[in-house]
Specification:
This protein is mainly alpha-helical. It is built from 17 helices and five strands. Strands 1-2-3 form a three-stranded antiparallel beta sheet, with no helix packed on it.
Length: about 375
């Protein structure tokens, strides 16, 4: 990426804001998606030295594409993936296609030049190829949970948080906005109602999630925490199930952790920090909360025996189509793939078990 002392272009900034508004209000994009698009556009601007968007031409597109392919991931230090390249380029192309129809830009931006961003067909296939994601095993998660200290309210909350994530597979942003009223402990299994009017669900969908069968001891941690909040802390139904950490001055007038307070987290950042600390303390590699969904998908592949069970498992993760679960989260690692092939028998084929499962995958 080219070095430049310029940090922005005033005219560019004035055009980006209405585009972000368009994405949010007209295209109904989520805030997280808009943030990713914003970063992609800034990346392009940095590469051009923050030139006016009206100077755009095919040479800029070709140069950016080449420079992007040479970039390394800040997290891994490895060359950025083809999928990252594709999502970045797609975001920039969509922006310039929108920009080309805006007053003052129609005569400046030559629409065919935007196509010069395109990656090769081979690169696109590589970007869209299913990638195996490493995720924690249930045994690793259990080790983390049961190695966590539980002396203070904050420690109890943190343990219950990780146990709850394993029980539900909920996204961290939804968990951060969850209240006690959304948990129906009178049901068996326990039901979590993700009301999109109050819970930050993906695509603002209403989702009913029952506790997954990952162990009564895991369930009891969460139920004990809920009981403690209601009876010990006198929390109401509108209070968060995972409260904010209260920070204040201790007797030495130093800022310190003073326990919990009935306030929702504003975002999922504190949740990820808790997970990272817990995995590190257990001397295990850190896995993000979202990867627990892969863990549960893998578990579901092993224990679900009928198409109906597969459908219920997928729906419990908030997916309307069972294919979403087993294509986005359920890639089988090579070793497990061999085990599955070995386990297949002539009897299985005669009973048409595979055919029934394939039909289930077509259900909506």
């Amino acid at each position: 990426m080219r070095e430049t002392t310029v940090k922005y272009h005033p005219k560019n900034e004035r055009m980006k804001q209405p585009y972000y508004q368009y994405l949010k209000e007209a295209d109904q994009k989520a805030d997280s998606t808009i943030d990713a698009i914003r970063k992609a556009i800034v990346r392009f601007e940095q590469d051009t030295g923050f030139k006016d968007f009206r100077t755009f031409n095919k040479e800029q597109a070709i140069a950016f594409k080449r420079h992007l392919a040479q970039q390394k991931s800040a997290r891994t230090g490895q060359p950025i993936s083809k999928s990252t390249m594709l999502s970045t380029i797609n975001a920039i192309q969509a922006f310039f296609k929108w920009l080309a129809y805006q007053p003052g830009y129609k005569s400046k931006i030559h629409i065919p030049d935007i196509e010069y961003f395109n990656m090769s067909e081979k690169e696109v296939r590589m970007a869209r190829a299913a990638q195996f994601k490493e995720f924690p095993t249930i045994e690793q998660i259990r080790k983390v949970i049961f190695s966590m200290p539980t002396e203070t309210d904050v420690e109890k909350r943190d343990q219950a948080l990780i146990a709850f994530t394993l029980l539900t597979g909920m996204r961290d942003s939804a968990i951060a906005s969850l209240s006690l009223k959304h948990i129906d402990t009178s049901r068996d299994p326990v039901l979590v109602r993700q009301d999109p009017n109050e819970v930050r669900t993906k695509f603002s969908k209403a989702i009913n999630t029952y506790f997954f069968p990952v162990g009564d001891d895991i369930r009891d941690i969460v139920l004990g925490w809920i009981k403690y909040l209601k009876e010990g802390k006198l929390y109401g139904l509108n209070d968060p199930i995972f409260p904010h950490t209260k920070i204040g001055q201790d007797k030495n007038l130093s800022f310190a952790n003073l326990g919990i307070e009935p306030v929702h987290w504003s975002n999922a950042t504190p949740i990820r920090k808790i997970f990272k600390q817990a995995f590190t303390s257990a001397e295990l590699k850190y896995y993000s909360p979202h990867l627990f969904r892969n863990t549960l998908t893998d578990f579901g592949q092993k224990i679900c025996k009928t198409p109906e069970q597969l459908k219920a498992w997928s729906q419990n993760l908030g997916h309307e189509n069972v294919l979403t679960t087993f294509t986005s989260y359920g890639n089988i690692d090579p070793h497990r793939q061999g085990e599955v092939i070995k386990s297949l028998s002539v009897a299985d084929t005669e009973d048409d078990k595979i055919e029934r499962i394939l039909k289930a995958l077509e259900l909506n």
